């Protein structure tokens, strides 16, 4: 079993778009270990889990009819938070090396691979003060790419390990635009992952 927490960086943002607040990610699930040698220190891992990721920017998503538009937060509005939140099913696939043996459970590890994710639900949320009144709005965001994947690297000792995920796909669908150009967001997630045998 594993659980993790990350800080979510956003790469390839357009000019004038910046990351705000604390964009975080949570993940948990289980991975089946498949040893490839007698020492059981080299193997494959295949798993299934759930993920929650948030991405805070200075861009507000607005529903306009059946369309979604992305605009910079107006200077007339005291924007507190503007985020996209995703809930995902995740399938990690890993090539695994560790210096363990049949009786030793405290060991160094390096696990590298890919993670496939399917977005179950995505929401855009906006919190602001407008004319000294609090405003909160949210809606299901259908602009996010349903199938996402990226490279992973987990390394560390025993239960405490570093986790890096570099997206090979954008967060949003290709046709999504901001300021008449493609609105690209490529996640880079860095944090910690904990394994429980």
Helical stretch tally: 0
Tell me how many strands there are. Answer: 13
Output the structural class. Answer: mainly beta
* Rg, Cα atoms, Å: 19 Å
Low-confidence stretches: none
- Shape, per Cα inertia axes: elongated
Q: Round the mean pLDDT to the nearest integer and report it.
A: 89
Helix content: under 10%
- Give me the side-by-side strand order of the main sheet: 1-2-3-6-7-9-10-13
Biggest beta sheet attributes:
8 strands, antiparallel, barrel
Q: What percent of residues are in strands?
A: over 45%
In angstroms, what separates the terminal alpha carbons? 6 Å
Summarize the helix and strand pattern as letters: EEEEEEEEEEEEE
List the defining traits of the structure above.
197 residues, mainly beta, two-stranded antiparallel sheet, 0% helix
Task: Quickly describe the structure.
This protein has strands at about 1-10, 25-35, 40-55, 60-65, 65-70, 80-100, 110-130, 135-140, 145-155, 160-165, 175-180, 180, 185-195.
Description:
- The protein is 0% helix and 68% strand.
- The protein is built from no helices and 13 strands.
- The protein has strands at residues 2-11, 24-35, 42-56, 59-64, 67-72, 78-98, 108-130, 133-140, 147-157, 160-167, 177-178, 181-182, 186-195.
- The strands form 3 sheets. The chain has an 8-stranded antiparallel barrel. Strands 4-5 form a two-stranded antiparallel ribbon. The chain has a two-stranded antiparallel ribbon with strand order 11-12.
- A hairpin with a 2-residue loop joins strand 7 (108-130) and strand 8.
- The model has no long low-confidence stretch (mean pLDDT 89).
């Amino acid at each position: 079993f594993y659980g993790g927490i990350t800080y979510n960086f956003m790469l390839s943002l357009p000019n004038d778009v910046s990351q705000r607040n604390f964009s975080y990610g949570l993940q948990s699930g289980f991975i089946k270990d498949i040893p490839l040698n007698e020492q059981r220190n080299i193997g494959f891992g295949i798993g299934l889990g759930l993920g929650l990721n948030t991405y805070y920017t200075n861009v507000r998503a607005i529903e306009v009819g059946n369309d979604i538009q992305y605009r910079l937060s107006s200077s007339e509005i005291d924007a507190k938070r503007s985020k996209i939140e995703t809930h995902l099913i995740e399938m990690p696939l890993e090539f695994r090396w560790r210096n363990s043996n049949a009786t030793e459970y405290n060991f160094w590890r390096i696990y590298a691979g890919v993670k496939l994710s399917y977005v179950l639900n995505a929401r855009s949320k906006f919190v602001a003060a407008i004319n000294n009144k609090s405003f909160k709005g949210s809606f299901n965001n259908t602009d996010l790419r349903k199938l996402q994947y990226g490279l992973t690297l987990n390394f560390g000792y025993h239960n405490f390990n570093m986790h890096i995920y570099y997206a090979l796909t954008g967060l949003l669908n290709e046709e999504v635009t901001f300021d008449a150009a493609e609105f690209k967001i490529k996640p880079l997630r860095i944090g910690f992952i904990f394994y429980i045998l």
